[in-house]
Design a protein that fits this description.
By secondary structure, the protein is α/β, with parallel strands linked by helices. This is (apollo) hypothetical protein.
């Protein structure tokens, strides 16, 4: 009897460590509508049981991701980089002397989603960069709950891949910027954590809210030297987390709804559209706020800080409100 009890407790502890408990907070109902990378809303059961077989596979092989390199020498035709395959890197156009940007899509996404070419082209139009698109569809195409549970393992895999790049090429962590959208925001946070918070920047684009509000594996301010979050759909039933999670948290137009948007999908995706525009123009400036009430009332009068952009040495902290236009470049 004692042996059985000990085994049960030990298994429960192991499971808790292997897969973090994800909570349905922020008053989300059991069934919600959440957008996939295909731009379509899908019904999600937040109380569904995750696919443990897939999660065990992801945990055993956290490096099972696809890394697609774009540079000014190959701006639209990707070169595939493979972890622990030095030749795949040394024979590519990867240049350790220029900054590296990683883009991570969200749920039901892949390399073919609009976020990837939009941010990629903004960077390559600005200067010489290694732009790496992370395609984590093996997990992302599963149900939302399973994908959420597996995000930390995929993030660790990305961190290990970047450590491999550093080892093979000498590319410093101080020249790396990790950018993730929705579930991808928490993913890049875990990648930065895997590297001890040494990457120059981590940017979360409307970090996903459902199952993440009190999840200790979510994006946090120690995941990089400078961590920024852009909140665009953080209302009571919004798709984004809505609360401050980074060094600097920006709330465009109050952070709940965006000009020209009539749906949560539009609000949610506006985060990566705004970010891409700031890489090109660096033109959106927030004012620091003392509290969330000032954000809502649009009465923030503190110090200015530009939202987004490509500056690796960027610093700042606090809450920021700014207003934007309805269409690009906003």
């Amino acid at each position: 009897m004692k042996l059985t009890l000990l085994f049960t407790v030990s298994f429960a502890v192991y499971t808790a460590k292997a897969v973090p408990a994800l909570q349905n907070v922020k008053n989300y109902p059991r069934f919600i509508e959440f957008p996939g990378g295909d731009g379509v809303m899908h019904t999600v059961d937040l109380e569904a049981k995750p696919d443990m077989e897939l999660l065990n596979e992801i945990n055993r092989n956290p490096d099972n991701n696809l890394y697609l390199l774009y540079t000014r020498r190959n701006p639209t035709s990707a070169q595939t980089l493979v972890i622990n395959n030095a030749n795949s890197v040394t024979s590519s156009n990867f240049n350790a002397q220029v900054p590296t940007v990683v883009i991570a899509h969200g749920w039901l996404g892949s390399q073919y989603n609009s976020i990837n070419p939009t941010i990629r082209d903004a960077y390559l139009g600005k200067g010489d960069y290694n732009v790496i698109v992370l395609d984590w569809r093996r997990l992302a195409l599963s149900d939302y709950v399973t994908a959420a549970y597996g995000v930390p393992a995929v993030g660790r895999g990305l961190g290990q891949f970047l450590a491999f790049l550093n080892l093979v090429t000498g590319a410093p962590f101080s020249s790396m910027h990790l950018v993730g959208f929705s579930l991808g925001a928490h993913l890049v946070g875990n990648a930065g954590r895997e590297l001890g918070g040494r990457v120059a920047r981590v940017t979360g684009l409307d970090p996903a809210g459902p199952l993440w509000n009190y999840n200790y594996q979510r994006l946090r301010d120690t995941d990089g030297v400078y961590v920024e979050a852009i909140h665009t759909d953080g209302g009571t039933m919004g798709l984004g987390i809505g609360s401050a999670v980074a060094n600097a948290d920006f709330f465009p137009n109050g952070g709940d709804s965006q000009p020209g948007c009539l749906t949560s999908l539009c609000n949610h995706e506006r985060a990566w559209e705004l970010f891409a525009a700031t890489v090109t123009y660096n033109h959106l400036t927030g004012r620091q706020c003392s509290n969330t009430l000032q954000i809502s009332l649009n009465t923030c009068r503190g110090d200015p800080l530009n939202m987004g952009n490509d500056i690796l040495t960027k610093t700042g902290s606090g809450l920021y409100r700014l207003d934007t236009g309805r269409r690009y470049p906003f």
